[in-house]
UniProtKB/TrEMBL annotation:
This is YkuS family protein. Pfam families: UPF0180. It comes from the Bacteria. It comes from Clostridium thermosuccinogenes.
């Protein structure tokens, strides 16, 4: 699988699970530094604790953003696969 997924560093189980499933995963801390490079990822997984995860409230991106709050690593994986197929 040639997909690169950005995952908030707090989501260690998700990082491990997605890596095991063949995704290239980058564990990152979101902030304004990532907003300009966000399009290098195929998707982003966030904790959901910070709605303004890119440091900008009105960022427009064509990539899926998965909010992992309340989800298992497997649920995130299935949501990610569904989002990437669209």
């Amino acid at each position: 699988m040639d997909r690169t997924i950005a995952v908030e560093k707090e989501l260690t189980p998700v990082i491990q699970y997605l890596s095991e499933k063949g995704y290239k995963v980058e564990s990152i801390e979101f902030g304004s530094d990532y907003s300009k490079n966000i399009d290098k990822y195929d998707a982003v997984v966030v904790t959901g604790m910070n709605k303004d995860f890119l440091g900008m409230q009105d960022v427009v991106s064509k990539i899926p953003v998965i909010e992992a709050r309340g989800m298992t690593a497997e649920q995130v994986y299935w949501q990610l696969n569904t989002s990437l197929k669209q």
